[in-house]
Amino acid sequence: MSEISTQFEALNLNELEPLARGKLTQSAYDYYSSGAADEITVRRNQAAFSEISLRPRMLVDISNLQTSVSLFGQLVSMPILVAPMAFQAMAHAQGELATARAAAAANTVMICSTLSNYSIEEIAAVANGNLWFQLYVYKGREITRSLVRRAEAAGYKALVVTVDSPLLGRRERDVRNRFQLPKELRIANFEGEETLGQFPLNVRESGLHAYIAELYDRALTWKDLEWMVSITKLPVLVKGILRGDDAVRAIECGARGIIVSNHGGRQLDTAIATIEALPEVVEAAGAKAEILMDGGVRRGTDVLKALALGAKAVLLGRPILWGLAIAGPQGPAHVLQMLRGEFELAMALSGCPTLQSISDDLLVRK
Amino acid sequence: MSEISTQFEALNLNELEPLARGKLTQSAYDYYSSGAADEITVRRNQAAFSEISLRPRMLVDISNLQTSVSLFGQLVSMPILVAPMAFQAMAHAQGELATARAAAAANTVMICSTLSNYSIEEIAAVANGNLWFQLYVYKGREITRSLVRRAEAAGYKALVVTVDSPLLGRRERDVRNRFQLPKELRIANFEGEETLGQFPLNVRESGLHAYIAELYDRALTWKDLEWMVSITKLPVLVKGILRGDDAVRAIECGARGIIVSNHGGRQLDTAIATIEALPEVVEAAGAKAEILMDGGVRRGTDVLKALALGAKAVLLGRPILWGLAIAGPQGPAHVLQMLRGEFELAMALSGCPTLQSISDDLLVRK
Amino acid sequence: MSEISTQFEALNLNELEPLARGKLTQSAYDYYSSGAADEITVRRNQAAFSEISLRPRMLVDISNLQTSVSLFGQLVSMPILVAPMAFQAMAHAQGELATARAAAAANTVMICSTLSNYSIEEIAAVANGNLWFQLYVYKGREITRSLVRRAEAAGYKALVVTVDSPLLGRRERDVRNRFQLPKELRIANFEGEETLGQFPLNVRESGLHAYIAELYDRALTWKDLEWMVSITKLPVLVKGILRGDDAVRAIECGARGIIVSNHGGRQLDTAIATIEALPEVVEAAGAKAEILMDGGVRRGTDVLKALALGAKAVLLGRPILWGLAIAGPQGPAHVLQMLRGEFELAMALSGCPTLQSISDDLLVRK
Amino acid sequence: MSEISTQFEALNLNELEPLARGKLTQSAYDYYSSGAADEITVRRNQAAFSEISLRPRMLVDISNLQTSVSLFGQLVSMPILVAPMAFQAMAHAQGELATARAAAAANTVMICSTLSNYSIEEIAAVANGNLWFQLYVYKGREITRSLVRRAEAAGYKALVVTVDSPLLGRRERDVRNRFQLPKELRIANFEGEETLGQFPLNVRESGLHAYIAELYDRALTWKDLEWMVSITKLPVLVKGILRGDDAVRAIECGARGIIVSNHGGRQLDTAIATIEALPEVVEAAGAKAEILMDGGVRRGTDVLKALALGAKAVLLGRPILWGLAIAGPQGPAHVLQMLRGEFELAMALSGCPTLQSISDDLLVRK
User: Given CB 3.0 to 4.6 Å as the disulfide criterion, which of A179, A197, B106, B324 pairs with B91?
Assistant: First the structure.
């Protein structure tokens, strides 16, 4: 069993954020940490985990814990993946490269954002093939097709289509900061392209908001998802689903995975917490697709609860960036190790030696 | 789709109030902001919106949002109207004139209070016919009849009869301030009339309280509503309903619209939040009348939730006054534009391209 | 309709307590305000009222409110009585005499505590016959019989037997203060009697606690209640009931009234709030006895809610003492007038012109 | 009836902790007081008691309270036992000896931890036979067998097998302090044994964590429980059960008692509060075994509630240590006396003269 990493002054993932804040510009910290509007969903994602109580089982032999999980034929060492997050080089110059190396070392998957500071190919070069590619859908199918082809060519093993962002949520801290990407950083996948490769300048609000308002496809529908499935042999996951009926529809369009997500509370404020939405999605679609979730995962017991409610794995987001900001290239690996250790301890103390033994019978909800 | 206005330092409607407070006398601020007794209902109106979670739909084409709504044959550009509010010239000398111009510019309806600082006719002169008239019922039918005739003559398109105020609620901040209208301001609709045209002086409590205690008709019943319907061809809405049975009764008396309202928490403290009362009223009377609501609307998602629960439109109150106090005649238009932008974003991120597509299937209530 | 009194700087009953605190010794303030243990029930009594929402009725003629109520053949002007409270002369030298005069002036009932600083006869001399007598049951029936005879002779119209205090609750503030009656004050009903007439001295805890531990009858049962009913022709009310089955038993023993009470949170901490216990008692016994309640009543809407749940009247406690401390002999009358005014306003704004029209259809409980 | 002890400046058990904190090293205080991770379960154990309301019965003769209870043929004076707690000599040099003397004086049971600073035999020498022995199960059956034999030989009357700790919970305060046993203290039951007798030194985390990670048996199962039952004639209780099915299983393996416990919130954070888990265990197994509970008991009403939900007795933990730290060898007796007094008062004010009369009919849960 893994020890919980003690490489940080922080003893758990919650303690990372205040430390990271001191290492980041206000603008970068706000971009990473903020959510939409009153940030009710940001807080709710975490609080909803705390409101679930555990009923552990005793006297189960937990001397040999099994945590590896197979996703679309790819074996990963634990049900904790790295969520797609944009612009990681604001946290450290190595950015996505460091995160990819950490995921590879942990033998888990990193999902790379379309909006990365290193390109699809640069990241693939360091990551030993445990990458998935997250796709924002731009107006014009050629941009999408090109990104898919590049990801396939670089050896990415799945596509994650984000469907909750036809427009950017109103992140007021970014508006106040008139958020712009630092000058030295690139939207690497579109480097050199005039419109796609940089935020509009001289806008009164968030530059990212303006970029997305101009470029993303607001007319996206299920037919477009069908088309995306049709142009690749990679498994397609749909990220941003919060309803059972939408999950069923996604699968009918050919998706093989669903990521229950509210974009970390960054899109529609007062959206349901993901751990609250998960059971409905699992019930509707759990038999036909892999169900993953993200949002608010900070403790090993959170991972356990998500799995008990039917998730195959969870994605870890912001804490990875905090690790990067605090400890540089070593940070993300420490963060993954902290959560892995906590998760294994939660399994042990709940009497769950395998992932299969984690059932909703362990939970009491108020 | 509309941008959210950034004319203010405030980034949302909640941030307006503290800014406005610095621009107003204590007495005017307290009059506008306060509620009855412990102000439990004031706070509950807003909190009740936050307790409703959203289950957004994905992959709906939202490139072309439709927000206009027809009310009694009048097409308004969005389901957000201006609530009746008294004495707007305490916020800015242009008072109701500025608000009326803003509503007209936004192609929505302003509901003018009986207790305005500009007269029925003065407001009508600037507002292009998108006005409704809010009626307090005084003792003596001739006063009422006269107000109705003047509103009709000035081109107002509906009458809103407020039924929750046979007496004024106990607004303790007004009592403490011994609230009086500033000397330079008039009760414009009764200018020059000795009793009707001014508050009683030398009272130990709120002057408005004394005015209403002396003049309003405490014996008002459903028969009086029937009579009011009988004397006008304008559609009559009843404002201040919080029960399904009362809504049915109002319609039986000839009302064509119901405004679910607790007077912004200013009348009966611990009255039910309006968003909590709305479903009962819609179920009882939604098929037979237009149901509107006010109380606590501050976010685009609040509008979405009210519509999902069956409201045809919402009324926006205090934030309009805060805009007037902060930015003068331009303020109300900015406020309307902020909320319109947020509402459209909420539609987009919820997968609702039309008002008709907003259903209670979007909501989870705890 | 009554105006809400504005004789105080305080605008409502909640604002009285901090003002009174400045007028009282720490020991007296703590004795009056404190409750048992963690004071959870003290707070819960009030909070439970706030958690009930009102669904007011509109367009009811409220120009002529009826608030008088008949209790055991005695007509009182409003459903608000004065609760029994010990040692009122700690608040003002006139003590119970002032309170009795205020109750008489308001044409309501004062319930006099056994543990008063003026005697049964002294209070009766100023109160015009609107008095009930509250009885603590001492060891030895002769003490009880004597008190009953004196109350009868002095014209008291009902007996209130407190049954929740076979021992005193653990009021930790009194323990810390080693609470003793100020030297100049008497336990007037036992003046001159060595044991009954004073607290034990030199005890390490609350003197009242020691007094009661020594003198009250811990072996009291329903048979004793039967006996008390048998020795008087006055109606007997039982105070301190929190269960329907106990209420039924009391009536079987001859009681004609039940006072739902947890002794203002001063006896058993974490006891149920009285407004929460009331419906069970009304359902079990409301048809056979008058049900009253006390505990946490601070607002006119609280009175309305208690009546809506079946109480015939409420008792007002601590705020009377705060009034006495702040304004001397005039204080209790002002306090009664404040609450009467608020209650009438609550009736008016809820559409209830009579006490009979106040039903539980007005309420929503979470 | 017992008086509540006033030997302390503290008036109740909650007030002990801050006083004790001033007497202890940070490391010892943190070890005693802390829980796992965010300490949600630590707080929840106590809060869950407060959320249960009491419906007391009146007019029951409570002049002669019966509080003694028979456990496995041993009569104890009250349903309050001393929970097993490790390393009590950090609080006072007399440590477990003082606690054992206090339990003996109170005629109740002390459960001695395997990890004590005085040995099985030393404690037995001062305790008059009212001891049970708590057993941690080490790798290698001989260690266990030896401990059992020693406890039997020393006259301990029951064995308490702790099953919730195959690994130590993550107590972050101990990690931060790199918790080690003070140099002058011994793991007395293994004195002189190199591995068993001391914590590993030079570890980066809690020394106790490392000790347990190395020595405890993570492969423990129900078969091992059967074996333990088979090697002794003493009654065996299983401590750390939070589920009905586990309780049934334990009894099938020969256990005669169940202690519903989450280890004071020190093992699996967000585990269900014990008072919330108790009813399920009582329902499943109450007829076949003695059910005890610990966790969060601080008030006499807490004991009453646990008994009302079917516990035969409760265990008191941390407050005993606070008493030891504050008042030395006299402390534990005072603490037991405080809680006994409060419990008897709770019985009296609830109308429960005997333990048998305490039923769940007294409770209302939200």
Answer: B324
